[in-house]
Description:
- There is one protein chain.
- By secondary structure, the chain is α/β, with parallel strands linked by helices.
- The protein has nine helices and ten strands.
- The strands form two sheets. A six-stranded mixed sheet has the order 6-7-8-3-9-10, with helices on both faces. Strands 2-1-4-5 form a four-stranded antiparallel sheet, covered by helices on one side.
- It is globular and about 55 Å long.
- The model has no long low-confidence stretch (mean pLDDT 91).
- It binds adenosine-5'-diphosphate (ADP) and magnesium ion.
- The site of magnesium ion has 2 residues, from α1.
- The site of adenosine-5'-diphosphate has 12 residues, from β2 and α1.
Amino acid sequence: MAEEKEIRPVLEAKNLKKVYGLNTRNEFEALHKINFKVMPGEFVGVMGPSGSGKSTFINNISTIDRPTEGRVYINGKDVQTMSEQEIGHFRHDNLGFIFQYFNLLKTHTMYENIAMPLALGKTDPKDIQERVEAVAKELNIFELLNKKPLECSGGQRQRAAIARALINNPTLIVADEPTGNLDSANSNSLMKLLRKLNQEKGVTVVMVSHDPLVVSYTTRLVYLRDGNIEKELIRGDMNQKEYFRAITDISSVESEGVFEI
Length: 261
Ligand code: ADP
Ligand code: MG
């Protein structure tokens, strides 16, 4: 019998539930048994109204927070069964993070910030230098490596944050509102860059954004409402403009109830 070679998901969440303030008066279920799967090379956008659980979702699928119930598998590995120390190593080897506020250390140079994840491992200094320089060239911040973050623009800082996320060749990049502090020109060039890395290097990305234009660079939209996945939209053959319109239709439903006529 011919063997079927199954492609393994990069990420799989099964019955993912998150309750804040468990067993207190303020108990609040922010995610209700969500099932979610990401295949290699996907670029998934997560949208939803404010408070719908986007950040909770992204934190719980990426080891930043621990779910109350359910299972999360990253590259087939059950994250829940790992100790904090194992999770630290696992993150280092598998995941890259990009946040809204860049999270760069202002006392360190751009070079040191980008190299940070490698400094925690056992990478040879020569190798570190080569990798930092290569990724900095790719992201067009090579000339800035000796500067401190505050001497650089917002767009340049966010590119350094991406360089830091990429330095370990992670299989999954997780981003929460990565363009939240960028103007529209920088935000578009950042998305072009992420899309290029996704298409050319096969980097898998899960990204939260409230901006339909930003999400129009993805390959799939997951729309959350009140802690559930309410809708999904696959880009498929749509061009970016068509996909953008479809995303706008889904995400503008919020406003409908507000208009009087
Ligand atoms: P979003 O990112 O979509 O705006 P969040 O994931 O931040 O939403 O929050 C989802 C819900 O969970 C909100 O109602 C929020 O008030 C609540 N929540 C988020 N973090 C906490 C927390 N640490 N403790 C209690 N409730 C929280
Ligand atoms: Mg949020």
